[in-house]
Write a structure and sequence with these properties.
By secondary structure, this protein is mainly alpha-helical. About 80% of the residues lie in helices and about 0% in strands. The protein contains 6 helices and no strands. Helix 1 packs antiparallel against helix 3 and helix 5 packs across helix 6. It is elongated and about 55 Å long.
């Protein structure tokens, strides 16, 4: 029984850490996109930024990251214990999202460009990688 409880706690901690790191990464990426957008369009308020993040195609790639964060929230608040398989699937989805591939993964290409433009993205990426390595 102790082992089962310990595994649940470990899985919950992993999901919580991953969620925090992905939220940090999302915030940095959204801010980087805001800065790029403002260079062309002028200053954007927080409310306008939220509307852009939801409705503007230029921000659609970040919506995929938002969806993964929501999946983590669902797992953290599920009534049933989280299985190893569910966590493995989620981690695979995160890795797939963040790694550019030959299929033209839009998120990965824009993410790669953000990595090259912003040192804060590099640090946040390293934090995510460290959590995924656990």
């Amino acid at each position: 029984m102790f082992n089962t409880l310990q595994h649940r706690i470990n899985r919950h901690q992993l999901l919580s850490q991953l969620r925090i790191k992905l939220l940090d990464l999302h915030k940095i990426l959204l801010n980087a996109e805001r800065v790029t957008y403002e260079q062309v369009r002028g200053t954007v308020s927080r409310g306008e930024l939220l509307q852009l993040a939801i409705n503007d195609d230029r921000f659609a790639w970040l919506h995929q990251l938002s969806q993964l964060i929501l999946q983590i929230d669902d797992l953290l608040h599920a009534d049933e214990p989280v299985t190893k398989e569910a966590i493995a699937t989620l981690i695979t989805e995160v890795r797939t999202l963040l790694i550019p591939d030959a299929s033209g993964n839009d998120f990965a290409m824009k993410y790669d460009a953000a990595l090259q433009r912003n040192p804060d993205v590099v640090l946040a990426h390293a934090d995510v990688v460290m959590v995924l390595a656990k």
